[in-house]
Amino acid sequence: MQIGYKLVAEGFGPQELVRQAVRAEQAGFDFVEMSDHFHPWVEAQGHSPFVWSVLSAIAAKTSTLGLATGVTCPSVRYHPAIIAQASATLALLSEGRFTLGVGAGERLNEHIVGRGFPGVHERHAMFRESLEIIRLLWQGGYQNYDGTYLKLEDARIFDLPDALPVMAVAVSGPDSVSLATELGDGLFAVEPDSALVDGYRTAGGTGPLYCEAPLAWAATEEAAVDAAHETSAWSVTGWKVMAELPNPVNFEAAAATVRKEDIREQFACGPDVERHLEVIGQFTDAGFDHVALMNAGPDPDGFFEFFEKELRPRLTSA
Hints:
By secondary structure, this protein is α/β, with parallel strands linked by helices.
């Protein structure tokens, strides 16, 4: 199992995210993962820097740390040709340490270019076309593509790494698992659902299995619950809500009914290492082998110290 650290791009500015990534490497994390957002989920988070710039800076300041987007939508706000080029460049800059996590996107980030955000069936069809275009461009040479939703004209990526990036496809059910098996090199999920892992392996998928474990470290359970409730209550609302709302103010309204008890149920809150192991264990028991720890607590450096002294020794000895 590889243990990752989720860089909360909605909660910190770019310089601080780079600092945290360097600290994560020192603390013994295997990789960092960072969302590709234009907006934060809620105004209280207050940040959302450009992921490709931040990860490039991290690549220059680290030597062993894996890097991943968690995840990029390559079909609305971006054209997939741009993502094919960006990921190839980052793979070169990181000397093969980059994983491209991709998904069908959220209205929160994609509507900003004024193209609208299509319904679920259309956006999944666009997502398939975008992955086909990325794969085509990664073959090298000049390429063309004439899809229903997306097109490519005489495009070539001149700087391709010898070993292409791993492309992990975000999944939520059988259709997306099938897509991950066909066009991806791995999968990415946010729920400890063993059916996703089993479906992928049964279909012949052999790649890495990425997930995010929701934690909130603080010196006391109450401080952890308060911090997670302020910045991350939106995460309890479920993916159908998270994919459709357009702005932070809408997420604040949607999260208004989330109770602190709901946070305690979903997150490992406070300093109790056993509770953190319990939440992480839901994902490892489901079969995931790349677990990114998503700390919604108020003290990143306190969490790093907790990870080094208490959590990592338990995880690596399991």
